[in-house]
Write a structure and sequence with these properties.
Distance between the termini: 41 Å
Strand order of the largest sheet: 3-2-1-28
Strand content: over 45%
Shape: globular
Number of helices: 1
Order of helices and strands: HEEEEEEEEEEEEEEEEEEEEEEEEEEEE
Number of strands: 28
Radius of gyration: 20 Å
């Protein structure tokens, strides 16, 4: 009987530790406002602004830790990453993150941040818990987009002025290859099996499909038929059958069939749409519209806009705590 009780207490203790390690999501949407130095907090159910967090000078990239306990914000003009609690909204700390950190990605297993340092033509790797610099990798001029493969083995950094994608190995942090894709690449998205990536080229209004083993372009799709299209951010649907692409000055999101690389439709949103984030269940797509200071909420079942939320001056990055 004593042995059984001990096993029960051990199991309860393990459950408690797991619960503490992984906090319940807040079901909030966090949006960086580049020109008023805040993060807007949106209730994902009501689409209303709950609060604004004064975060630092020129916030852009934003991400969340795997345990849902911390939100990270690149505050570019302070050369730092700010960290706040998604529940209390209290700013916990800041740490130096290299010259002009623009955006970053959170590694799926280590939780390390892979950051694009726009002014220094580098990608840097930081442990966000300690603020320790783990690695620096030289890349092209004006690096911007950062995306990590789902298997965690490769990182893509886009360099807009060099018109290139840079492929970095993990955990070695070595530059594997550089691929010129032209047209000022802004962002990329991986297939779930990590075998392919799709990147956006802003100036040529193109989507490039990349073979991640050969680091070669295998297919190109043009969006130039859409007036003023300047592709920026790109994300997959939950089932990986659809790509959503923010079209910048076209003030719309392109909906693309992945298998055929053909345009299914476009969704009109706010002005100069920039960043995208998809809810965990795939039912909602959020867009940051820097031209009219809003976030659009899209119902992906029918590709319609449910709400336009006024967030603050020049919304840039968006992440969902769900």
């Amino acid at each position: 009987m004593l042995a059984v009780r001990l096993r029960i207490f051990t199991l309860l203790g393990a459950v408690a530790l797991f619960s503490n390690a992984f906090a319940e999501p807040t079901n909030r949407v966090f949006v960086t406002n580049e020109k008023d130095n805040t993060v807007a907090v949106i209730n994902a159910k009501t689409h209303e602004i709950e609060a604004k967090v004064s975060i630092g000078n020129r916030p852009r990239g934003i991400g969340i830790s795997h345990d849902h306990q911390e939100v990270y914000v690149a505050i570019s003009a302070e050369n730092a990453i700010a960290v706040f609690d998604p529940k209390t909204l209290k700013v916990l700390r800041k740490f130096p993150a290299g010259s002009d950190p623009e955006t970053f990605a959170v590694h799926p297993t280590t939780g390390n941040l892979y950051i694009s340092n726009e002014d220094s033509a580098k990608a840097s790797v930081f442990d966000p818990k300690t603020g320790k610099l783990l690695a620096e990798v030289p890349v092209g001029v004006e690096p911007e987009g950062v995306i990590i493969a789902p298997d965690g083995k490769q990182v893509i950094v886009t360099s807009e002025a060099s018109n290139s994608l840079h492929f970095i190995s993990v955990p070695e942090h070595k530059l594997l290859a550089t691929l010129n894709v032209g047209g000022r690449p802004r962002a990329a998205a991986f297939t779930q099996d990590s075998q392919f990536a799709f990147s956006t080229s802003e100036l040529t209004a193109e989507i490039k499909k990349i073979d991640m083993q050969k680091h070669e372009v295998v297919k190109t799709f043009s969006l130039s038929s859409i007036e003023k299209a300047k592709p920026k951010d790109i994300v997959f649907s939950k089932d990986q059958k659809t790509l959503y692409v923010a079209l910048g000055r076209a003030s719309a999101v392109a909906v693309i069939d992945v298998e055929s690389l053909s345009l299914k439709t476009t969704i009109a949103v706010g002005e100069r749409v920039w960043g995208l984030a998809l809810s965990k269940d795939g039912s909602r797509l959020y867009t940051t519209n820097g031209g009219n200071d809003t976030v659009s909420v899209i119902d992906t079942a029918n590709n319609t806009v449910l709400a336009n939320v006024n967030t603050g001056k020049a919304p840039w990055g968006v992440v969902i705590d769900d």
